[in-house]
Each structure stands twice: as structure tokens, then as C-alpha cells.
From TrEMBL:
HAMAP family tied to this protein: RbpA
Coiled-coil regions listed in the entry: none
Family: Belongs to the RNA polymerase-binding protein RbpA family.
Protein's organism: Microbacterium algeriense
Function: Binds to RNA polymerase (RNAP), stimulating transcription from principal, but not alternative sigma factor promoters.
Annotated protein name in UniProt: RNA polymerase-binding protein RbpA
Amino acid sequence: MATGGNAIRGTRVGSGPMGEQDHGYHADRIAVSYWDGLGNETVRYFAAGLPEEEIPEIIDHPQSGLPAGRDKENPPALAKAEPYKTHLAYVKERRTDEEAVQLLEDALTQLRERRGQ
């Protein structure tokens, strides 16, 4: 028969004289609710003696990935999802040849000024 570890049979591993009160689980806490732009609520707990200015106004909401604020009536704005652009959309946004020549001339002028200094 193979046995491992040094735990006594019938005891919980890690149990000992320390209880929950020794870990701080019964410390006075306050619950703060946060709402994201979709209306999802997250409750975070902070120490009761923590000053109001140290409690964050905005947090990351774990379920939606959006920011969540403490004000339910005015939650943070939804993150703007940029639509996927195809290659043709980028081609349509390209500058005209005249603009490209002007940009190149400006860049070359700046380089020449830096080298001259």
C-alpha cells in the first residue's frame, strides 16, 4: 500500500490552530457595487476603515470585460468596437498622390534640418 505525505489519517490537510478570524475573514468590510455599461453588477469588498478617496470609482468588470463604475445611473460608456476593415477599405483611405508627395517632401526636409544641426 502506497502512502504519501505526513498527514494523520482522518484530518484535514492544512487544518490547525488558526481559524477564519486569524485570517482576517471577519474584519469589518463594506460592499461597493459597480455597474458596467451593460448593467451588469459586480460587488467588491473593502476594509471598513479605508478612506473614501482610496476606493476606486472605476474597475474592470470581469464578466463583460468593460469598465464598471460606482454610479448606476451613469455607468461608463461602452468600449467602441472598431469594425473590421478589409484591405480594400484601407486602399480607399489612402492619400492621393499629391498628398503623398507633400508628406515625403516634409519628411525629407525635417531629416535634412536635423542632419544640418
